[in-house]
């Protein structure tokens, strides 16, 4: 009995340590560790059922009209049954066999088939429950441009007036219905992940603190609170739009919708406009909010020469030293915009072992899909190897 008692106490002690946020252990490392731990009951003798959502999670970055690229990623990530169609792959009979798919916004502009990509994700979202799965669609700054009648980056040959009208009208309907949102929070083992197009930088986080809690100083905002605010604002601003532009730009909250100095703007840099370098800098300087992990897009991987940037897509993509999927210090934030419309292929997976895995293909050829060239990097192992 004595050895069993000590074993129970030890297990309880480990649980107690593991389930309190630590300033020394990166959240990604704690997440992976918690997945392996026995969460014991109050007696310290039995493991409690794992009620966490352990479904595989797949995050896809900016699409920019690359329907063909999206189809390839969905097939490679085992979401769809074919690289030529947008049909669900059988995920298994149990909930844990399903997956959560998050696309972080910027479906439109540049590429040849924005509507195809938009409609594909919309269809998958409608059918997801049948496959024990969930699809989350976020807006990006380019999507907001379309809602405000700004089409300067559209694909002139593909994005005709009827296509623009159809896409924008459907966007408005989906925002009103709450199926197209600005932010999403996902929790695994009590560790929250915040998905937003570009990211929450420290200055915007402070703005939210003052906006949501004007009478209190330095309130710790939960990702759920941030998500609720962002999504409510999006619905208020665009969910009942009847004509373009949906809003006079001057009437929109500058802090929420405008770019910061890092992107040539005059705002503080809202969640649709934060360059990933801002999140990297904040993480390195220990300024970034540390009680949640951010997954974002918006900032394309710098793997291209200036000449290649203007080609759709380039015949060859050089390998990034940091990868197409990039992580900030201690994996506090991850950027998944690999440059899909230019031919790069990348997505992020949070697997069932609670590890963040980057899937990347560096060499692109629009006429030949080479699935065997995908590489995998375990971002969690890299971030936690010295811990």
From TrEMBL:
Molecular function terms, GO-annotated: hydrolase activity
Pfam families named in the record: Metallophos
SUPFAM superfamilies according to UniProt: Metallo-dependent phosphatases (SSF56300)
Keyword list, A-Z: Signal
InterPro entries: Calcineurin-like_PHP, Metallo-depent_PP-like
Residue span, Calcineurin-like phosphoesterase domain: 56-201
Residues annotated as signal peptide: 1-22
Entry-linked PANTHER family: SHEWANELLA-LIKE PROTEIN PHOSPHATASE 1 (PTHR46546)
Protein name: Calcineurin-like phosphoesterase domain-containing protein
Organism placement in taxonomy: Eukaryota, Sar, Stramenopiles, Ochrophyta, Chrysophyceae
């Amino acid at each position: 009995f004595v050895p069993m008692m000590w074993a129970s106490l030890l297990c309880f002690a480990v649980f107690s340590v593991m389930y309190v946020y630590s300033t020394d252990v990166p959240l990604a490392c704690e997440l992976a560790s918690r997945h392996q731990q026995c969460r014991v009951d109050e007696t310290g003798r039995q493991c409690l059922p794992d009620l966490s959502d352990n479904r595989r999670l797949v995050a896809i970055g900016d699409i920019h009209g690359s329907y063909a690229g999206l189809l390839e990623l969905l097939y490679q990530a085992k979401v769809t049954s074919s690289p030529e169609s947008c049909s669900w792959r059988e995920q298994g009979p149990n909930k844990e066999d399903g997956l959560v798919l998050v696309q972080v916004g910027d479906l439109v502009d540049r590429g040849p088939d924005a509507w195809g990509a938009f409609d594909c994700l919309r269809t998958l979202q409608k059918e997801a429950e049948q496959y024990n799965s969930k699809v989350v669609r976020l807006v990006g700054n380019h999507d907001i441009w379309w809602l405000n009648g700004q089409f300067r980056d559209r694909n002139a040959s593909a994005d005709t007036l009827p296509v623009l009208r159809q896409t924008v009208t459907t966007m408005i309907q989906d925002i009103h219905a709450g199926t197209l949102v600005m932010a999403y929070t996902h929790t695994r083992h009590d560790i929250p992940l915040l998905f937003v197009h570009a990211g929450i930088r420290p200055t915007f986080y402070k703005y939210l603190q003052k906006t949501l809690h004007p009478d209190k100083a330095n309130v710790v905002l939960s990702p759920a609170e941030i998500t609720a605010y962002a999504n409510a604002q999006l619905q208020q601003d665009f969910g009942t739009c009847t004509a373009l532009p949906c809003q006079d730009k001057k009437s929109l909250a500058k802090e929420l919708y405008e770019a910061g100095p890092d992107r040539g703007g005059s705002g503080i840099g809202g969640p649709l406009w934060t360059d990933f370098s801002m999140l990297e800098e904040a993480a390195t300087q220990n300024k970034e909010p540390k009680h949640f992990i951010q997954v974002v897009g918006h900032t394309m991987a710098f793997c291209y020469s200036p000449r290649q940037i203007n080609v759709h897509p380039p015949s060859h993509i050089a390998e990034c030293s940091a990868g197409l999927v990039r992580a900030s210090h201690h994996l506090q934030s991850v950027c998944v915009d690999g440059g899909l419309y230019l031919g790069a292929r990348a997505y992020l997976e949070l697997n069932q072992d609670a590890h963040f895995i980057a899937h990347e293909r560096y060499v692109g050829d629009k006429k030949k899909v080479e699935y065997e060239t995908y590489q995998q990097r375990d971002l969690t192992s890299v971030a936690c190897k010295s811990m």
